[in-house]
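Input record (one chain):
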Amino acid sequence: MCYLLVFTAERRLIQTSAVSQLKDTRLGIDGNYWIRKIVAKENAIAAIGGLPLRLVACIEKELEGFKSSGIQPIFVFSGLSILRKDRPFSTEDTRPSHRATAWDFYDRGKLDLAMSNWASSSSIHSAELLNTVFQILHKHGVEFIRAPYSSWAQTTCQCSLWWLGIINVGY
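The corresponding structure, as predicted from the sequence alone:
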């Protein structure tokens, strides 16, 4: 995803327009990227554990924004990864030390440093949230697809079947 943002920015392919231009469209959205942006708003998730406290409220607020703008979102979530990106036990996991350091800062009253250490030791992955996200989307009658592999490949396939706008939701 990061390479796509760099590629499009370098070629000045990114443009900002009024949301009203998307009224009455079906919009394909990369669900994994969307969820990462929502979860990133909660720095202390590594300290608290479990689901982000504001997850349901944030998702419902976003869905209401789509509805009020007349946009029909279709979230496309990635399935299995074809390429293995991690190598278990090949490098030291620094997350526990970041969390321990964050608690030390918290005990000393240095909340800003504690929050930044918790943010860098994120222990939650969007895959762990997907069932909850799927339940929320289903409850609100919002279409979503879990692709067999890449969400981008699935979205491209959907575009050829029916007109579907594609956007990368930015915050």
